[in-house]
């Protein structure tokens, strides 16, 4: 009788142990399956997001050419950030500095601009400012500009800062009769011929050509 009772107890304990083991295994399996399902969902989400790049991101960065572009949407975004008008023509100032832009573009509708900040970018040429005839101040310092050009129509321009560029000659400013301040410092001017154009700029009262490569004594005289 005692042996039978002991066997019954052992059997009962074994069943309890097996039940606990099975529950533990089921719990682990459920956990693994749940984790696998979560990881699968995350992967699907990542794949979906990477396959659908936003349009404004495409227009902002051209990976192939390593260029950051000035798209219409991005300009409007900057306007919102600086609490400017979303209607382009209502803005008289525009801040597009420290963005890394390679080109001046998509400013056709910003016809009321009086001050335009474009410094500290990667701009290589002055262009596409045909509709900004109201400009008084233009800041283009710290860029990659090689030539002063396409500014003849800016008759009201008072201040032009093109310091810290790659300019080797002052030119194409003779029609700017209201130009008062001209900063061409930290460029590549070398001799008297490079700054000869200054003689016809009668309205300029503030001229900065410091920190260039001028070593010609004729410049001083």
From TrEMBL:
Assigned GO CC terms: axoneme
Protein's name according to its UniProt entry: Dynein axonemal assembly factor 1 homolog
SUPFAM superfamilies in the record: Outer arm dynein light chain 1
Record's keyword terms, sorted: Cell projection, Cilium, Leucine-rich repeat, Repeat
Function: Cilium-specific protein required for cilia structures.
Pfam families, per database record: LRR_4 (PF12799)
Primary localisation category: other
GO molecular function: dynein complex binding
Organism: Trichomalopsis sarcophagae
GO BP annotations listed: axoneme assembly
Family according to the record: Belongs to the DNAAF1 family.
Gene3D superfamilies tied to this protein: Ribonuclease Inhibitor
InterPro entries, sorted: Cilia_flagella_integrity, Leu-rich_rpt, Leu-rich_rpt_4, LRR_dom_sf
Annotated localization: Cell projection, Cilium
């Amino acid at each position: 009788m005692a042996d039978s009772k002991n066997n019954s107890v052992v059997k009962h304990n074994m069943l309890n142990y097996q039940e606990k083991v099975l529950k533990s295994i089921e719990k682990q399996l459920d956990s693994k399956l749940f984790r696998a399902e979560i990881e699968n969902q995350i992967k699907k989400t990542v794949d979906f997001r990477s396959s659908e790049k936003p349009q404004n991101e495409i227009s902002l960065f051209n990976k192939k050419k390593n260029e950051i572009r000035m798209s219409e949407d991005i300009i409007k975004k900057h306007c919102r950030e600086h609490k400017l008008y979303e209607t382009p023509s209502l803005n008289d100032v525009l801040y597009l500095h420290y963005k890394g832009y390679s080109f001046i573009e998509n400013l056709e509708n910003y016809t009321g601009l009086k001050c335009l900040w474009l410094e500290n970018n990667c701009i290589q040429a002055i262009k596409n400012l045909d509709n900004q005839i109201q400009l008084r101040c233009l800041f283009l310092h710290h860029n990659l500009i090689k030539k002063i050009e396409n500014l003849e129509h800016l008759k009201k321009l008072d201040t032009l800062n093109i310091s810290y560029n790659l300019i080797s000659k002052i030119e194409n400013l003779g029609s700017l009769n209201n130009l008062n301040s001209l900063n061409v410092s930290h460029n590549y001017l070398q001799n008297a011929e490079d700054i000869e154009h200054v003689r016809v700029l009668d309205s300029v009262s503030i001229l900065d050509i410091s920190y260039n490569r001028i070593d010609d004594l004729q410049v001083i005289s």
